[in-house]
Structures are given as C-alpha cells and as structure tokens.
Specification:
heterotrimer; A: about 90 residues; mainly alpha; 2 domains; about 0% strand; B: about 650 residues; two-stranded antiparallel sheet; disordered C terminus
Chain lengths: ~90, ~650, ~200
C-alpha cells in the first residue's frame, strides 16, 4: 500500500505551497528591498530544486551525472549571463 | 502588381542582375540534368530522405563548400574594391551588403556547416556507433540549416541583402537606418538554422554519452570526439541566447517594439551584449572541433600518441566554461567603466592559457616523431605558427585600454581572420583530406593538395598581414574606400593579391576533387594513412551500418592497439543489425520552415499562418507515427563485408 | 529492441534512455533561453518611457491564481507519472486530463491579464519594459500552449495504445517539460511580479 501512495509528490506539493506563501510575505509585509530579494532568491531556488528532485526524478536515471552536469552548467551560465549583463549594461555605468 | 513590388531589389546593379541570371541558369541546369539522367528517385531515396549520419555529414560538407564559394566571392569583391584608393567598383551600400553577407555566410553557413558535417561523419565512427542517438532529428537539423542558408542566400536577388554587418548592431539594423527587408532575412535565416544547430548539439551530446563502444570510457575517447562533445555543450548553452536576441530584433523591426531603440526606454547596447554572449562562445564552437582535427592528424602523421591527453581534455573543459565569461571584450569602447573592462580583460587573457597548453601539446607530440608531411599534416604544421600569431594579437586586443586604438580597425579584421583561417579553414581542409578516403573510398591527390596548401597559406599571409599595419595606422574596417593621401593603397593592393592567391587555392582544391575522382586508384584499403583511432577499422567507403560487429575498445587508440598490440577489436559474431528508416518528414518540415521564414521576412501573414500550420501538422504526424526501424539480416551483412573486404572476422 | 524489465517502462530501452537524457539537455538549453529573457528583462526593467511601470499594472490576484493553478498542475502531472509507474491507466489519464485543463485555465487567466494590461495602456509598443514583460510572459505562455497540444497527443496515444515502451517514454518526457514550465513560472512569479510589486 505504501508504494501506491505518492508520498514524494504530496510532500513536494505541500513544500511548494509553503514556499510560495513565504515568498508572498514580501508583498504583504513591509520590508527593505535587500531583505525581500534575499527571501525571494532563497524561496525560488529551493522551489526549483524541489521540483527537480521530487517531481522530475533527476537523480533516478543511470545518466544522473550527465543530467546534473547539464542542469548545473546551464544554471551557472545563466547566472553569469544575467549578472554579467547587469554588470555591463547597468552597474558599469553607475 | 503591387504585391510583387516588395520583392524588387532596392540597390540593383549589373553585378546583381548577372548573378540572378547565373542562379536561374544553374537551377534550370540542375533540374534538367536530374530529369535527363533520371536521378530524381535516386536523389530522393538515397540523399534527401536519408537519416544516415555519413550522408548527412557529406551533405553538410557539400553545402559548406558551396557557401565557401559564395563567401569567397564576396571576399574577393571587397579586396578588389579596396585594392586602390577611391575605387568605384562597388558603391557604399553594395559594399555594406557584401561584407555583411561575407561574414554571415562564412561563419554561420560555411564554418558551422563544415564542422558539423565533419562531426556527423566522424564521431559515430570514432566511438563505434551505428548512427547518432536521434537519426531523424539529425536530418531535421541538416534541413533546417540548409533552409536557413538558402533563405539567406536568396536575399540579394529578392528584396535586398542585409547591410548592417554580421554583428548586425542596432540601431543601424533597425528600420530607421535599414529600411529594406535585408535584416529580416538575417533574423530568420539565422533563427531557423540556429534551431537546427541546437538540435545537433543535443543529438551529439547524447550520442557521445550513450553510444560509445563497450570499454570506451570517457577518458578513452579519441580527441576529436572529446572536442565534439565540448563543442556541442557550448552549442546547447550558447544558441538559446541567439534565439532570444533574434526574436527581439524581429519584434523591433516588424512589430514596432523598442527593445533596441534609443527611445521609450530601449537600449541599443543590449543587442551588442546579447549578440556577443552568444557570439564569443560561437568562436570556440568553431575552433574546438578544429583543435580536435589537428590532434588526430598530428598524432597520426607523427606516428606517436597524442602528448598530454588529460591536459588536452582539461583545457577544453576549461575553455568551454571560460568562453562564456569574456564576451564584453568585443565592445570595450562602449563606455562602461574601468572595473567592467578590467574584469573582462583579465578573463580574456586567461583563456589564452588553456589554448597555449594545447599548442605545446601538439609541439610535444611532434617532438622526436617520424613526421610524414602529407597534405593534412602540412595544414596542421602551418596552423601552429599562423594561429599563434592570431592568438598573440588576440591578447593584444584583450588589453582594454589599448583596444581603444585597435577597435574597429583593420587590425581587428586581420586578427580574427588570422585565427579563423589557419584555425578553422585549415583544419577543415586537413580533416576533409584526411577522412576523404573514409567518405568516398579514394584518396585526394597529394601533389595538387600541396599546391593548394601553399597557395592558401601564402595567399593568407599576403592578404591579412598587411591589415595589421594599415589597422594600426588607422584604417577603419567596413569603409568602402579611402583616399590616396592615407597611404593605405599599396598594402591594400598586396591584400588583394593575397586574396587572389587564396581564390586560386580554392580552385585547386575543387579541381583536386575532380582530378582524384577521375584518376585516383580505388583500392586504398581501410587504413591508407596508417592511422590510430577506431574509424579506420571500417572498410572504405564505410557501409551504411558502419561496424558489422560492435567493436570492443580499451584505449583512445583502439585501432592502433589492434594493429600493433594484438588487441581484438571485434570479438563477437555478426548478428542482425537494427537501423532507422529513412524519412521524408525532415525535408518537408524544412520546406514549411522556408515558407514560414520567407513569408515572415516580407510580413505576408497568410503565408506565415499556412506554414505554421504545416509545421504543427508535421510535428503532430511525428508524434503519432510509429517508426520501428528495420533489420539488416546476417546474410546481407556478410555479403557486404565480403565485397568491401571488411576488417571484422567472418564467422 | 532490447527491453530491460528491471527498469520502469519509460527507461527500459537504450533509445528511451537516450530520449530522456536528450530532453534533459534540451531543458539545460531552456534554462539558458529563459536566463537570457531574465537578463534582458532586468536590464530593461526601468525603461518604461512614458508608459506605466510594473508596480503600476501588476495585480496580485490573477498572479496568485496563475501560480496556484500551475503549482497544482505540476503536482497532478507528477501524480500522473506516479500512476503510470503503478500501471494504473485510468488514473494516469485522469491526472493527465486534469493537468491539461489546469494548463488551459492558466492560459485563460493569462489572457485576462494581458487584456487588463491593454486597458491600462501597456502594449507591445508602449516601452521597452512593456515589450520585454510581454515577451517573457509570452514565451512562457507559448511553451504552455505547445505543451497543451503535446499533452493532448500523448493522452490520445495512451488511451488507444495503453502503456507501451513508446507511450510511457513520451508521457514521462512530457512530465519533465511540464515541471520545468512550473520552475520557470516560479522565477517569473518571484522576480518579475513580486519584485516588481515590492
């Protein structure tokens, strides 16, 4: 019977709802930009990781090394692109 | 008639009309020829619908040579125009169009096609696979690339060429300054072929990760395969950036948005930024496969295994990541502060380190080797000093403060041709000559090949070294003419002569194909170069299932081991082989993409919608289609192997 | 075709494993695609020209609705995969159908949101910010739309053929796609809407 109950999915769903509620606090409470951004960054990345592990089963395949390498590489370069672009086009002129 | 007016050429000249006639006649000649010799069926069955990686590779390479011709003609026209001061061979607008198409064609449709063609042909053979991971997708990639190339190439006879440089900077590329549909062509041609390239990237990563022969661990892969793996990783992460940039450019030009405008909050620098976020990794997409080819060629013709295998791999992995960290060096002069320029200056110089490691590894591979100066080896040996000069001038350009002097001068033009021609073009010619017998079963003539090499190398030096000098003296790039007082005249004339020699080299290389086809012996055996890696364990030319028996490998030079150390490559018996079926879907899909792109260029929305429905229809058909592939029987394999004298054991 | 019965059906052949790995790598490319959109969005964030800014047009209700719909649909597609693994065709089809309906209602809310923007004077041509906002949301929305058709095709195939090596593989890959769209939405929700309204 335990195998039939989708415990992982239910946990993932509850977690994601909780994290969304935490993220919403930046809208409903008054806080500084820095604190708000920190909360958003933390909740967003944890949620993404939850989806990856709980729902997408990233680690279950034989090719998990290739999969994780690909995803981490993509995230790393996407972050470089986002912050590099901001550095070059916005912060570099301040 | 009003409908057709949009297709008129905005800056018509006799040259364009002449090429229009030439294109028309060529198409008619091809159609008549195919009909007369009754080759339509053969063409459709054996080539247009093929999913065989070898044939797709060959089609890529043929397209690349065609594009090399097109881009080469553009190049000679530019050198002719600037050969003497105040020349009036081309007007300013025409010159703009010529340098734009030269750049795009050479990078996107020549170099990319050449390296992807080479990867298609070689990688599955080197890893002992029967095809790539997704053969159908591979065909789609090719046909999307081909669609993009054709779309781009018809621009100059229908509607007008793009004219804002291959970098296509806004606001010059916006509708205010470039009113014709030329830049729309640029956007859609690159968009469509870019999708194809992205699919290739995914395809080859999976192929290399999942389809290697038993025993071939990652660190036992041949170096060209390693280079391909890293290249495709860069492709997968770089091309989406281009996709978005092109999409934004299309919106700006056709839907009136203000992404790259200087009004309503837009930022034209954003285009330059996004373009180079893709564009700099693109440079390494081009050069890494070239490095792979040189590694194979140098090790084969020095009779030694590759020196520093691990450091070769490590340096490529490092390059793949660092290639995403340097893009700002393309626009140091855009006005961001010293901090930004300083950071990207340092990363740029740092990327020279792994590249330098590779140069030393090749030199040490040759050290004390028994070097055979064949044509592929000549190109590789010529590459090392010439490429090093290009690399050193690259480090000069990386110095942000000094870049204010070099920026947008002929010095820069000299630099990037100095890395791309000895880097990519030499490598592709070396690789083509090297793997030619695998592709077609005969060798290219060495004598003509060597003449081609010398003409190309000397022509290259004459064409581009003077540009370093005129560039430092202040000759700006992309200027269609200059006055005699500048004193640039004589050196530009030398450049023109060099370009002429390179054109002769191209003719020699093409003639060599014809000559060798007529005169070369066909019994070259499976290993004419005394080579080392797995692809040489197949008969020449390679049967369409590649290996009759899955090879078993225990080093990066499995074939050499089998020849010299008694390693048994094919321990198993011949069994029936599963192969994918041919399909007409890829070319039909690409046809819809062509209609889509063409209609979008001219904002003919009916055509766009019809083509989009066609594309969706193709995808839906694919989703519901069942394609189990087919089996080749044991008897058929035995017969083929007997005919080709295959290496595998006959039991 | 060799079928390895020790693995779930969607992983059971070499080709199936390659399909799944290939799709993961495609998702890596998608990360970069949306990364570029975010980079451009943050750059043009303040380029509002004479048009409205984000904080002037964003409304929490439709955004929250979209978020909850998409989170739930990500949950239900996860349940569909789970049902597939315990070989329950009916449940799989039901969860798949719920997922697609949720996706459709997400699109409905998004269209409502776009119409609202239009009435507040925010269109594609208003400013760089407006165009970038609509392009980012539109790219995500286009992905969802594409997913609806794709999911429908898979629904029909499972209905007709049951669980085969082919259909389980397709439906697993589709679930990866759908979860990924949810991940992208989380970032849109956090760094476009919440950051804009903060």
């Amino acid at each position: 019977m335990r195998e039939l109950f989708p415990a992982k999915q239910v946990m993932g769903f509850i977690f994601s709802l909780v994290l969304t509620a935490i993220a919403l606090s930046v809208y409903f409470t008054d806080m500084s930009f820095q604190v708000g951004m920190t909360i958003l960054l933390i909740t967003a990345f944890i949620q993404a990781a939850l989806q990856l592990v709980f729902f997408m089963h990233a680690g279950e395949s034989q090719d998990k090394n290739a999969i994780y390498t690909g995803i981490y590489y993509g995230i790393a370069i996407a972050l470089v692109t986002v912050f590099g672009t901001l550095l070059t086009l916005i912060w570099g002129y301040m | 008639m009003e409908f057709f007016e949009r297709f008129a050429i905005p800056n018509a000249s006799p040259l364009i009309y002449a090429s229009m006639v030439a294109i028309g006649l060529t198409v008619v000649a091809i159609v008549i020829g195919l009909t007369y010799f009754k080759k339509w069926g053969y063409l459709w069955k054996e080539w247009l619908t093929t999913v065989d990686h070898k044939r797709i590779g060959i089609m890529y390479i043929i397209s690349a040579l065609l594009m090399l011709f097109r881009g080469g003609v553009d190049a000679v026209m530019m050198r002719l125009q600037t050969a003497v001061p105040d020349n009036s061979f081309l007007d300013a607008q025409h010159y703009n169009e010529v340098f734009t198409t030269h750049g795009v064609v050479m990078i996107m449709f020549m170099a990319m096609a050449f390296i992807i063609g080479m990867m298609n042909f070689v990688v599955p053979l080197q890893i002992g696979a029967r095809d790539v991971a997704f053969p159908r997708l591979n065909a789609i990639s090719f046909w999307l690339y081909f669609t993009g190339a054709m779309l781009f190439n018809i621009s100059f006879v229908i509607g007008g060429s793009p004219d804002a440089g291959w970098t296509n900077y806004f606001p010059l590329a916006g509708t205010d300054f470039s009113e014709t549909v030329g830049i729309n062509y640029y956007m859609w041609a690159l968009q469509i072929s870019g999708i194809g390239t992205l699919m290739t990237g995914i395809n080859f990563i999976v192929t290399i990760i999942k389809m290697r022969a038993p025993g071939m661990k990652l660190m036992k892969m041949p170096m060209f395969t390693w280079a391909s793996l890293i290249t495709n990783a860069i492709i997968v992460f770089a091309f989406p950036v281009l996709t978005i940039a092109l999409l934004m450019g299309t919106f700006d030009r056709q839907f009136g948005t203000h992404f790259f405008a200087s009004t309503n909050g837009g930022m034209d620098m954003l285009w330059a930024n996004l373009f180079w976020v893709w564009g700099h990794p693109e440079v390494y997409i081009l050069i890494l496969p070239a490095f792979g080819v040189y590694s194979e060629v140098i090790s084969t013709f020095s009779g030694r295994n590759l020196y520093g295998y691990k450091s070769m791999v490590a340096s490529m992995v490092l390059i793949s990541f660092m290639s995403f960290l340097v893009w700002v060096h393309h626009f140091f002069t855009m006005g961001h502060g010293a901090l930004v320029n300083g950071i990207f200056s340092i990363t740029t110089m740092a990327i020279a380190v792994p590249t330098g490691i590779k140069i030393f590894n090749w030199l040490l591979t040759m050290w004390k080797g028994k070097i055979r100066f064949t044509v592929p080896m000549l190109y590789s040996v010529g590459f090392i000093p010439l490429f090093t000069i290009g690399g050193v001038t690259g480090v000069m350009l990386a110095i942000a403060s000094a870049d204010y002097q070099y920026h947008n001068t002929m010095f820069l033009v000299a630099h990037f041709h100095n890395v791309i021609i000895p880097g990519v073009v030499f490598a592709m010619l070396a690789g083509l000559t090297y793997w030619w017998p695998k592709m077609f079963g005969f060798m290219l003539n060495e004598r003509i090949g060597k003449w081609g090499f010398w003409f190309l190398s000397i022509g290259f030096c004459l064409a581009f070294f003077p540009m370093y000098i005129t560039g430092l003296d202040g000759q700006a790039r992309r200027m269609y003419t200059y006055s005699a007082e500048t004193g640039f005249g004589p050196l530009n004339m030398v450049s023109f002569i060099g370009a002429g020699l390179m054109a002769i080299a191209f003719i020699l290389i093409v003639y060599n194909v014809y000559y060798s086809f007529r005169h070369s012996p066909r019994n070259v055996g499976q290993d004419p170069w005394n080579a080392r890696s797995l692809e040489w364990a197949t008969p020449n030319p390679v049967p369409h299932y590649n290996f009759a028996v899955d090879p078993v490998v225990n080093s990066s030079e499995a074939f050499w081991d089998a020849k010299k150390n008694g390693h048994v490559l094919f321990p198993e018996k011949i069994k029936k082989i599963h192969m994918p079926n041919n399909s007409g879907l890829p070319i039909i899909l690409a046809g819809f993409f062509f209609i889509f792109g063409f209609s979008f260029v001219f904002s003919i929305w009916v055509g766009v919608i019809i083509a989009a429905l066609g594309i969706i229809g193709c995808l839906a058909y694919r989703s519901f289609e069942k394609d189990p592939g087919h089996y080749i029987s044991r008897e058929e394999i035995l017969e083929t192997e007997k005919k080709l004298g295959g290496a595998s054991n006959e039991n | 075709m060799k079928i390895d019965h020790s693995q779930p059906l969607e992983y059971s052949t070499q080709q199936n494993q390659m399909n799944i790995l290939g799709f993961w790598i495609f998702l890596g490319a998608e990360i970069m695609l949306f990364g570029t959109l975010f980079a451009s969005y943050f750059t043009l964030n303040n380029g509002v020209g004479s048009g409205p800014s984000g904080s002037e047009v964003f409304e929490i209700t439709p955004v929250l609705l979209e978020t909850i719909i998409l989170l739930t649909s990500s949950f239900t597609i996860g349940l569909a995969t789970h049902a597939m693994r315990i070989n329950n065709k009916k449940a799989t089809l039901a969860f798949l159908a719920i997922t697609l309906l949720l996706g459709l209602s997400f699109l409905g809310v998004e269209v409502y949101e776009f119409i609202n923007y239009y009435h507040e004077g925010l269109t594609l041509q208003t400013s760089a910010f407006s165009a970038m906002l609509l392009l980012t949301l539109g790219t995500h929305g286009a992905h969802v739309t594409f997913g609806l058709f794709w999911g429908l095709f898979i629904f029909l195939q499972i209905k007709k053929q049951g669980f085969t090596v082919g259909t389980t593989n397709k439906s697993f890959i589709f679930s990866l796609y759908w979860h990924f769209l949810d991940v992208v939405w989380i970032f849109i929700f956090s760094f476009i809407y919440l950051k804009g309204m903060m």
